[in-house]
Amino acid sequence: MTDATDGHDDPNGKDQFRPVGHENEHFLLTTVVGSYPKPKWLDRARELYQGGDTTKPREHQADHAEELPDFDEDAWEEAKDDASRLITKEHERAGLDVVVDGEMRRNEMVEFFAHRIDGYEFNGPVKVWGHNYFDKPSVVSEVEYDETWLVDEYEFTADVADRPVKVPITGPYTLANWSFNEAYDDLESLAVDLADLVNEEIQKLVDAGARYIQIDEPALATTPDDHAIVGECLEHIVDDIPEDVRVGLHVCYGDYSRIYPEVLEYPVDEFDLELCNGDYDQLDVFKDPAFTADLALGVVDAHVAEVETVEEIKANIRKGLEVVPPEQLVVSPDCGLKLLPREVAYEKMANLVTAAREVEADLDAGEIQVDAAPAKADD
Amino acid sequence: MTELVATTPGLFPLPDWAKSDLSDLKGHQKEDLVDGDEADAVRDAYATARGEVVDAQVDAGLDRVVDGQLRWDDMLAHPLTVHDDVETRGIVRYYDNNNFYREPVVKGDLSFSGDVADELDATAALTDEPVQAVLPGPYSLADLATDEHYDDDVEFLAAISEFLAGEADAFPDVETLFLLEPSLVENAPDDDVAGTLAEAVTTVADAVDADVVVQPYWGALDEKTHAHLLDADVDALGYDFVANHEDNLYNINEYGTTDDVSLGLVDGQNTLVEDPEVVRERVDWVHEQAVSADFDTTYVTTNTELFYLPYAKYEAKLDVLGDAVSLAEVEA
Fold first, then answer.
1. Do B32 and A131 lie within an 8 Å CB cutoff?
2. Which of A245, A314, A336, B283 is deepest in the core (most CB within 10 A)?
């Protein structure tokens, strides 16, 4: 996992995901961060399954069981399979080189995992802002690995997909920071224990065939001073993971100067950064010292419903070439697309792919001058 | 002998049915939040929820009943974000939490609003127990807002304190007023502003005929800010013993404190529910350790607002406060 370099020769480099018959000499891998708008019928299916009250799991509604519509566990599983298949194919139709299933089986990025980890309990929704709530879980005892989290999701998606599949996993620091901690002395000890569970899950995913893992740590953006804890967690996460498995880290928009260049010490191959929404105002942060990992650059805004044109996206991709050479550049949206209307999310992906292919062709033709020189982590 | 008063700093979570009903009635977007001019159905939902949180406080045996500030979508910034003369912009982070509020931008003189007084009228009508008002302290409200009207921070703080004094002046009879001042810990005032802090707080305190408690939290005040605050004409200063007991005890013993004191001893941000016996021991511990102090009244409270918690845990925290104080009274 360590020492991400020029991408060409590394077993964990992005070239292993280059499609057969790729049209250009250059290859700017296109992918997404993970979440995608759910089809409306999936939300409706969830309501039916949960008896109309989407805030409660079905098992908590036993009092009214006789009133529940006839939409059982099997029907709900089938609905999620259908959605996963549909959105995986939608990603392929957009032309992405590496796809996900849009996280159709996941309700929320902390809740989903907390439900599968021993040591967590749920006490009800809490406010984030306005009337936006989430079921913030409580860690009430030592966390332990129980059932697998994502192996079924991965196997289904990989089976459906004709392209390589990436697996996004909520990082242990975020799982710890966005929970109530009743059981551990401090956040760090909880996060490190969770990191060991993430490691266990990745081992199982790798056994199932996964080669591209993305750790999502949005909480690092809001508490950047804890970057050393995230680093310690990542060391636990990649322990004994085979070299040919690519591991990325997604960090949402924040004051990146407070975590860079320290994050370059992290044992990951790729950093996925949200720079479009700030109009690349923090791009210079990553120019000095040189960016030694691969850069997965956000080139469309995940929070604005206007679809960027191909030309705009091409200009954004060229911003990335100010930081890293083409060999180290990956192209993706800023963040998960799930809050956008579905047709907008699709258009953004499709334009992103078109723009990447055009920039590749321009690079092949020598029409783009690349400023950034390849940088090796061990230089 | 010290009288113990079980109370809270307010800002409660909505009951779960109200979270769901109000999000259906109001919507999820920035422009859907409370603006001081809500539709009848929205007002009715809040009124019902207010009744529930008043009952919960009475049932828990609290000695003061607060409104619960259930309408305060923007938490402590609420008195400005509902104000007609204030523009609200994007969603910004609420201190060091995973919570967000609409940024209020002050673009003109702040006239009287009466929004908080209306809430207190409604609360007072629901109970015969002593009512406690809650407001952001002037420094914290100024800190949460953006000023595009006044010349400098000192002038802005003075204007905010005059505004809050006007709001407090319209309150019905209340027993106590809590002024919440987390910004004094999180973003301590510079020398210019610190020099006028006591005056700003006193301006608000003087507007009510009630005991006034200034409650900083998320740690301890730095020594200079603590010393300045002691010059304010208030009845009690609050100390967050959950976040930092050492520095708070140091401040009390090194500089003295007010005749009454407010102790944040129950964690307002963690679902772990304390044992009332342990809370009572913590009260005794502070009384013993505060060597020179002989308090007339000690308010026993959570260290922070309670909206961070799921509703059932919030109710459990109220019970802990009520039980801890009644335990102490039985033993005394």
1. yes
2. A336
